[in-house]
Amino acid sequence: MDRSDRMVYGLRVPYFITESRINELMQQVEPRNTDVWLVTYPRSGTTLTQGILANLLNADASRHQTVPWPEVGWENSRYYISLDDLEKLVAPRCFKSHWTASEHVDPIKSKARFIHVSRDCPDMVTSYYYQYLNAIDGDKSYRRSWDDFFQQFMTSELRWGSYFYHYYSWRRHYGRSNILYLTYEEILSDMPTAVRKIADFVGVDVTERDVQRITEACRFAAMKAREPEMAHHYRVGAIGDHRRVMSEAQINSLTHKMNEVKAMLQFPGDKSCAAAGRGRQALTCADPVVAGKSLQTK
């Protein structure tokens, strides 16, 4: 099988994500109003939040079984789940995705609910670089330097497309009752509160003992120890790691780009890379311009 990245609905994705599976999700899988999609750009807190959801729903099963990745269409992938097995999952069904707010995860058209988790941009792109270099999770042929990778990220040449458009596509729906917005930093800094928010959104009753159990189970060291076969996927799990590799010029470039996006989301004065607001104008794939500069969508 050709293991090169492919384009699916304009989005560059890994080989195991197929257009036929996305079509199946749109045409054959009936969304339920109890469904919850965990949506992130890679390296933004996916594994941590997936772990919280898995522990909320079924502490005895793996996070991949409890919160599967339905977009995987290659049957030999360890992430694959059949449509029949998707249908058999009991409510609330929870899924993970890295998709933009479109197709099968359109928060306006779908009856489902969505948890969107974002991360401080410099830390996210740093972590993404190391994932790209990883022979298991990343691109086995990728040998470029950090500076080359950063430039590719800024011009949206990497897998999963433009981070800036991904962020915009989800955050422009801020205020919708079917989307819970979280940041990786707030989950790490106060996990008990994050667990309660997620439980309430999903519709799972928890006691303080449950909150404590889930918090301890989802600490970085605990999750890494519980999944030795996925040790390559757990790297640092900390805030501020970008300082080891990122220059001031790169930080400034990234911050400037994010501020352009957030200006369209009516957060012109926000200094972080994780806040969002209600958009005052629409940005689409056909018109990917912010402050005169392209977002390089998808």
UniProtKB/TrEMBL annotation:
Question: What Gene3D superfamilies would the database entry show?
Answer: P-loop containing nucleotide triphosphate hydrolases
Annotated ranges, domain Sulfotransferase: 34-256
Keyword tags = Transferase
A single GO molecular-function term is: sulfotransferase activity
**Highest taxon of source:** Bacteria
Q: Pfam family of this protein, just one? A: Sulfotransfer_1
Q: Which InterPro entries does this UniProt record tie to the protein?
A: P-loop_NTPase, Sulfotransferase_dom
Which family is this sequence assigned to? Belongs to the sulfotransferase 1 family.
* PANTHER family, sorted: SULFOTRANSFERASE SULT
Q: What is this protein called?
A: Probable sulfotransferase
Species: Hahella chejuensis (strain KCTC 2396)
